[in-house]
Write a structure and sequence with these properties.
Chain lengths: 507, 507
């Protein structure tokens, strides 16, 4: 092995980034591909992370005045067609229900029967079915705004599925709001983009770049789409949330009309916004290392795992007793306004293997307890964001008093680390040559890890954007808010550019 | 109107029970039928009740050692066929996905394209797809038990849909467990039945009869199905939860095999159990009255609504100030271990209409505040479980100190009332004549409200059961645990009967 340190995940990020990603998920027992094409099974550890994502986002939605509701899984084909760009955008990836029962055929085998008069599409998103309902609910300006969110599964048939990142069925939340004025709808669109940014930063420990999507990347049917873009460890971008200002397009398609305060009949202004289980893929690729997953404490299913270290049977009883008492004491402490989530791992397996299983699952803090710790009233504490060698003994009381501080520190450190990584791999680029060089792998052994975020001037032409995507696999992630105002010249065409845009390869 | 009291819901229960049910849902703004055949839209008030149901059940599942996970929406046709009874049971009501995109046909209209090699069924329940995964996860007895629950949507094509009670798409939880021994699986089956009973009694305020389903009503593929049965106000039964002991049937179908502690290869023993959005229908029909919905406090989206009474504009400021302060004080109090959920209704509408809107929504407690209450430092308190005439003034502090007690009393009273109603309409029947008379409407103006729960002896013959269902619309709801041991003679055939069973008409 020479200088190379043994890692829990094979291959490492440098050796084979895409495969490393799959292996991290496997080692953490988060999810797996199912035998149903393109669909994943989210296993308990992965699901518990999603539950925490849901819990916090749901609270944030409610704090901003939204309520939840639930709309049908099925969308009649005719509804989807009401908005021309919308159906165009989704027609290629729709799961279509055509029959409502099974019957035995002449060969005795079951086959679809009871053909539906109109095929039903499994929702790829719910603007059209929800719009249909809003049209019934809204008569007067007094019925507005409607501020509804839905937690649901959606289906977009994926030809190249990739667990969490792109799956045929995925889970998400989709907010759908309707307003009396354009201004109100625009404020809502931005409010939710800000909420997603806040959530990404403060819960997922993922720094994200806010901006508007270019026309080519706009949600089908939207007037404007805004996104937050995060940088993964292979320096590719991952879209981590979108908020759409839909203007009156969907209101017109679904006939969401209201009588204004002035007694005029008007179309409502609508928005929609969503994040999905894709966020879990982003979490993995932002924070994990060559030993596996690292979960930010605020989203961790468990904050602390206690590992009894039992070399001799004679010590078992007093070690276990000490562990049980410690577990209770930890659970009585709070972090982030909730009792600390802790577990005592009593599984009958070899100690090293057991400890590594939690490293691979990304639990923020482990506490090893052997006869020595019992003797001295201490705890041998390891932090997932530090090397295993840095584990150290702490007096029991000190640990209990500092556990909240340690978790807070880990959460903060993860955001800082991800922010540094992003900043180190973000450049301003002012020529086409530099651009092409930046997005060309330098190391043939690591074709996956290269590039980063490039802020460059662009003339705004859609055809150029499409060429760049086709020829170099680079796209405009968004037109960032934080660099607006600096005029310049397009590095490809020399034409005038209103501001730099964010270029990157992406998921 | 004569002696007839005006009610908020038209028609009343006595006038037209099925229509009353629809009108209660409409008046409470809980849900509505969608334009998608058989599918409902759950509106915010209905959804908030479901969220509370989910929150408590989820906690109870976790407290009994279960974890959540998520499995695909789609089930390949071949999987469904692996268990013969199972596919037989669900073939007639399957939504079938046959295509994965849309394309324009010769007439320019979009039509399904990209036919799938194997049709996919939208899960009507997930035993087969989950079994397929468990087979991959289980190798040794050390991998057992698996104790997983999933919150999901399922689809069973309904020919006669009825909101909440029978809809093509509905939401539910489905627990799926696998065990090394028959005994363990049986204990699990009963544990979950008990958990559902506990939830029905203590949260939904619904008394339920526990028992085993007869063969005819068994879950397709199960060895034994157990249910809890509740009585609605039209005296029909509603199945409010089921728990299935699946034996090794599904383990065999999916090849869930493990190496036992003795080194022998064995099939696992599995269970499944579920409750659905149907519970909301049961809640409505158990508790609501002719003025609308009544929600048990533990599941109520709001516990208390404050209604400012403003006849003159000059009082507005001080009344609103008093209300705001009161709202804060109420929210600082707790009920059922959580802060009290309260709202100040500032909508600009007529006072009576406003108050009645909350009656119809079933909020447990309303507090009216006018200048008189501000003057005397009091609150005019109404309880949804009492007549509007019984509203009364209470000193502000007394109300605040007693709010927890009032809510507890309402919750308790609702269970007591439902239990009395059930007991009053439960009979022992010992002859076929009495049986037929019991299940025949006495009042031609109220064909819907009659009968009840009848405990009678039955010989156990499936064909007899089918005849009773066909001829009289009466079925065996379950074979109750609480009357076991009393032998007798079948009231229809005179043959030997091991115990009385529970007969009723049902939803």
């Amino acid at each position: 092995m020479g200088n190379k340190q043994k890692t829990a995940i094979t291959p490492t990020r440098e050796e084979n980034y895409p495969e490393w990603y799959q292996q991290v998920i496997k080692a953490a027992d988060m999810a797996q591909n199912s035998p149903v094409r393109g669909c994943m099974v989210i296993k308990p550890w992965g699901w518990a992370i999603w539950e925490n994502i849901q819990k916090h986002l749901d609270r944030m939605f409610k704090e901003t005045g939204h309520v939840n509701a639930y709309f049908p899984l099925f969308i009649p084909l005719s509804y989807l067609q009401k908005e021309a760009d919308h159906v165009e955008g989704f027609a290629k990836e729709c799961a279509v229900v055509t029959h409502h029962r099974l019957e035995a055929g002449p060969d005795g085998k079951l086959r679809p029967a009871g053909e539906l008069e109109e095929p039903l599409i499994i929702r790829p998103t719910s603007e059209t079915i929800i719009g249909e309902m809003y049209a019934k609910w809204v008569q007067s300006y007094r019925d507005l705004p409607i501020l509804i969110n839905q937690w649901a599964n959606v289906v977009r048939w994926e030809m190249r599925p990739r667990i969490f990142l792109r799956t045929a069925e995925f889970l998400w939340q989709e907010g759908h709001t309707a307003h009396a004025t354009e201004e109100e709808a625009k404020i809502e669109t931005m409010k939710m983009l800000d909420l997603y940014t806040d959530f990404a930063h403060n819960y997922m420990a993922i720094p994200a770049v806010k901006g508007e999507k270019s026309e080519a990347e706009r949600f089908p049917g939207a007037v404007a789409t805004y996104s937050i873009e995060a940088m993964m460890q292979d320096r590719k971008a991952l879209q981590a949330g979108t908020s759409h200002f839909l203007g009156q397009n969907f209101a017109r398609a679904s006939q969401i009309k209201f009588l204004s305060e002035q007694g005029k009949e008007e179309y409502a202004w609508t928005t929609s916004w969503g994040v999905s289980t894709r966020l879990i893929g982003g979490l993995i690729m932002t924070h994990s290392d060559d030993n596996g997953l690292i979960v930010p404490p605020r989203l961790a299913p468990l904050h602390v795992v206690i590992l009894p270290v039992l070399h001799k049977d004679e010590n078992r009883e007093k070690v276990m007793e000490y562990c049980e008492t410690l577990l209770k004491a930890i659970k009585a402490k709070t972090y982030d306004g909730e009792p600390i989530r802790a577990e005592l791992d009593t599984r009958d397996m070899q100690g090293g293997e057991k400890a590594w299983s939690w490293v691979k699952k990304g639990v923020p803090v482990t506490v090893e307890i052997g006869p020595k710790e019992v003797e001295s009233g201490s705890a041998y504490v390891g932090r997932r964001d530090q090397d295993r060698k840095e584990r150290r003994g702490m007096a029991r009381e000190e640990f209990l008093n500092r556990i909240d501080e340690i978790l807070t520190d880990i959460q903060k450190g993860m955001l800082a680390k991800a922010t540094s990584f992003r900043d180190e791999n973000t450049v301003k680029i002012d020529s086409k040559d530099d651009f092409l060089s930046f997005f060309t792998p330098k190391n043939p052994d690591q074709p996956e890890i290269h590039g980063g975020f490039a802020y460059a001037h662009w003339c705004g032409e859609k055809v150029l954007e499409e060429e760049l995507a086709k020829d170099y696999g680079v796209s405009i992630r968004n037109i960032p808010f934080d660099v607006s105002g600096e005029e310049g010249k397009c590095i490809f065409t020399g034409k005038k550019s209103a501001q730099r845009v964010l270029f990157a390869k992406s998921y």
